[in-house]
Amino acid sequence: MAKTHARTSAPLTAGALPRTSEVPAPRAAGDDAPSVSVIIPTVDREKLLLRAVRSVAAQDYLGPIEIVVVRDGTPSADATAELEQTMSAELRPGVSLRQVPNTRSKGLPGARNSGILAAGHDLVAFCDDDDEWLPGKLSAQVPLLLRTPSASMIATGVSVVTHGVANHRPGPLRPTTLEDLITRRIMELHPSTFLIRRSDLVGAIGLVDEELPGGYAEDYDLLLRAAAVGPVLSVPRPLVRVHWHGSSYYFSKWQMIHDSLDVLLDKHPQFASIPRGQARIRGQQAIALAAMGRRRQALGTAIATLRLNRTEPRAYLAAAVASGVVGVEGIQRFLHRRGRGL
Length: 342
Known about the structure:
This protein is an alpha/beta fold. Helices cover about 40% and strands about 15% of the residues. It folds into 2 domains: about 30-245, Spore Coat Polysaccharide Biosynthesis Protein SpsA, Chain A (Alpha-Beta Complex); about 255-335, no CATH class. The protein has a 5-stranded mixed sheet. A 4-stranded mixed sheet has the order 5-9-6-7, with helices on both faces. The longest helix is centred in the C-terminal third of the chain and has 17 residues, at about 275-290. The two termini are about 25 Å apart.
């Protein structure tokens, strides 16, 4: 597995936004608004990618926007050229499009990092290729970041679409702390909503972790590291449409999920001091073990979970799955229809 360079990359020395109280308020003129690089990793999903790119290009933000599509794998020359040709007629002044290869480890974390390192602007935002931004996203986020120099990240609410049904999930109304995120994942803080200073991504926060097994929970890990630097703020409106579907790379990859959660617990010792948060992760592991048919281990992990928090629902779900009372796929489908996950 490729080694991450999250802690060793040199910080930017020019063109980065400061993280002090001297950050100016945004101005009306487009030339004075901070520039934003939008990272869109993709693997052979051209129709979805086009929708995502168009949603970013349609933003009404006054500052420069650079769309950086990161090609993970070996896309055809026709696909790359077609995107360029299609968007050339649609990009307004101030919006540009670049396509770059993933030069790091294969997969989403490496692709995100390739985009971050290739980005030429002060601020970096993420958008997954199967998601889409809604109008006004950047115009709401950037001024909030400029008004709050202590913030490590700005997110927004999301509209989760499953089988054509949208579940609107506004972002948190108050700043999100590290303790908040240890206790609860807060799924509204979705990576397609993230806006972060590039200088922090190559500095205090670090790049996306490429060593997590299969890249699972890379977004949650990044959130935890960001919250350790400063509070995570959110625009409390659904400004990103997140499409959930059963073809997700992580759907039912239970061993990968279990192992990645182990790494996450080791990497963030704060879980040990917050039993409720540790129980949530252990409960997820218990469900993964039950889904793999490892009944004895699943029940043991569920019992250990309940010792940490008797009200953790995942422990009871794991026991039900391990006992054959319910199937984990049915639970997943039920939760996904409501815009939630395990």
